[in-house]
Amino acid sequence: MNVCFVIAYLLFAPLLGGLLDGTDRIISARMQRRKGPSILQPFYDLGKLFSKELIAVNNVQFLLNLSYLVILMIAGALLFFGADLLMTLFILSTADMFLIMAASSDSSPYANMGASREMLQMMAYEPLTLLIAVGFYLAEGSFQVSDIIDAPVSAILWMPGLFVGFMYTAAIKLRKSPFDLSTSHHAHQEMVKGITTEMSGPALAIMNIAEYYELVLLLGIFSLFFINSTWWSWIVAIIACGLVFFAETLWDNVSARVKWKSLLYSCWIVTLVAGGVNILILMLIK
Amino acid sequence: MNKVSKSPWLLHYDASSCNGCDIEVLDCLTPKYDIERFGIINTGDPFQADILLITGGVNSQTERVVKQLYSQMPEPKVVVAVGICACTGGIFKECYNIKGGIDTVIPVDVYVPGCAARPESIIDGVMKALKVLDEKQKAMKEDRR
Q1: How many domains does chain B divide into?
Q2: CB–CB of B37 and A55 under 8 A?
Q3: What are the beta bridge partners of residue B43?
Q4: Do B47 and A54 touch (CB under 8 A)?
Q5: By the 8 A CB rule, do A241 and A172 touch?
Q6: Neighbour tally for A26: CB within 10 Å
Q7: Would the CB atoms of A199 and B47 count as touching at under 8 Å?
Q8: How far is residue B91 from each of residues A104, A273, B82, B114, measured CA to CA in Å?
Q9: Structural domain that includes position B26
């Protein structure tokens, strides 16, 4: 059963991620009173990128990009296998380190600036990500994903603060405004394309596929908050993931990019208030 | 699926334009014209661009930049000259610092006349450029065989 989940994740996560990205672009366009591209646009983009010439700035960047993809796939596979949540989150950070190395391996100042901002973003969201793992342990008594989804009641009842905090910091991971400092899906920013500036053709396509894996992985963690031992909780989780995704798109469209200090401080304050208080209450009542 | 014309990403550069054409180019992104419905993204990165959209004639200062941007774009790529200055040099043609149209420096595939070029004609020019782009991709594939 678990193996089926892993195979489904590895095969269909890019498809689902691409469709969600297409939906995101249509919803964003409608919010701006535009028509927007086709829902299959991300796949057209991928097809084009793979057919383009690869301008390699050095020998190692493509390999590092590929490592980013493979390690993200491993992290997602662990989550969908029902393994250790803590391990999944650690491997997720490792994957990000490969992206940072890929960006800092070239000589473009924009890519290097993107890499340093990406590290800053990691500093902003890592504390809360760890607190989530701790929260699940306190609420359900285990780090194992298979135990968490077998709990009698949904984890959201124990950790609403952590859920709100995770929604707040997920905007960083999904590269949404106001937290898309290191690179952005949208045109023209102060440092070209940031971390992906020197990635062309197939290298960028691999990076995009990795982002789709990451998107599905994050939605998987969101659904952990809702899934319990009953069958209908899975439906609730899917609806909740859709709502979370819509909320992130809405937030992306109504907010402007912030400075790095506001990013860091606001994330830490949210971590401390929403996450910390939630953990304290959990420790008291559990 | 593999057609590059389904997702052309655009790089816009102002060689020495008076900004009239640039405003019209940006106008294409607004809700009224919305070029994103064709899958077009206005990217700032030559590494990821398929179409180079240039406004204004080339002068001695921007010649270097235009050449570099063109060389940084991966194949297949097309160049669209927007506005009469980019096509021929326009009213600035005789100026001491102007070299002339974009085609004096890099090969141009589509010329969009007008002062300033209207958004409709820019979109039309880009659509013509997409056909050239597809032909170039086909030629590239045959070369590989």
Answers
A1: 1
A2: no
A3: B11
A4: no
A5: no
A6: 19
A7: yes
A8: 45, 63, 15, 12
A9: 4-144
Burial letters for A111-135: b for 16+ Cβ neighbours within 10 Å, e otherwise? bbbbbbbbebbbebbbbbbbbbbbb
b/e code B58-80 from CB counts within 10 Å (16+ = b): bbeebeeebeebbebbbebbbbb
Residue A58 CB contacts under 8 Å (≥ 6 apart), including other chains: A105, A106
Q: How many CB atoms lie within 10 A of CB A223?
A: 19
Give the whole-angstrom CA distance, residue A241 versus residue A82: 19
Q: Do A47 and B2 touch (CB under 8 A)?
A: yes
Q: CB A191: neighbour CB atoms within 10 A?
A: 20
Would you call B107 exposed, middle or buried from its count of C-beta atoms within 10 A (0-12, 13-18, 19+)?
exposed
Stated as kind and residue range, the H or E segment containing B54 is strand B51-55
Q: Cα(A74)–Cα(A10) distance, rounded to whole angstroms?
A: 9
Instruction: Please report where in the chains the tokens 């991966």 appear, as a residue.
Output: B74
What are the residue ranges spanned by the domains of chain A? 2-285
What are A225-249's pLDDT values in tens digits?
999 888 898 999 999 999 999 999 9
| Closest CA of chain B from A241, distance in Å | 26
CATH number at residue B50: 3.40.50.12280
- The stretch B76-91 carries a mean pLDDT of 91
Query: Whole-model pTM?
Result: 0.91
Rounded to whole angstroms, how far apart are CA atoms B67 and A217?
42
pLDDT of residue B1: 45
d(CA B24, CA B11): 15
CB atoms within 10 A of CB A259: 10
Identify the closest residue of chain B to A25 by CA–CA distance.
B36
Chain B residues in contact with A32 by the CB 8 A cut-off are 31
